[in-house]
Design brief:
With 77 residues, the protein is of the alpha+beta class. It has 3 helices and 4 strands.
Length: 77
């Protein structure tokens, strides 16, 4: 099971990113725990300067803007 965190203050792009990740994981049958991190102090600990950011199993895999669907799919291959 993947532990996924979406880093962002709750903007539309952050919500869209979380929804895209949930959709792709469900389609691929990948179980995951999705957490939304909205506190700026917590976000800063990951070195993310631009949101939304995505952290999978402790590793930053994306920062800034909604990731492309193909990129999200590659995280779950």
């Amino acid at each position: 099971m993947s532990n996924v965190k979406v880093l962002g203050i709750g903007c539309a792009n952050c919500k869209a990113t979380a929804k895209l990740i949930e959709t792709v994981a469900r389609e691929k049958g990948v179980p995951l725990t999705l957490e939304k991190v909205e506190d700026m102090k917590d976000i800063m600990t990951y070195g993310i300067l631009s949101t939304p950011g995505v952290v999978i199993d402790g590793k930053v895999v994306h920062a800034g803007g909604i990731p492309a669907r193909a990129k999200v799919e590659s995280w779950f291959n």
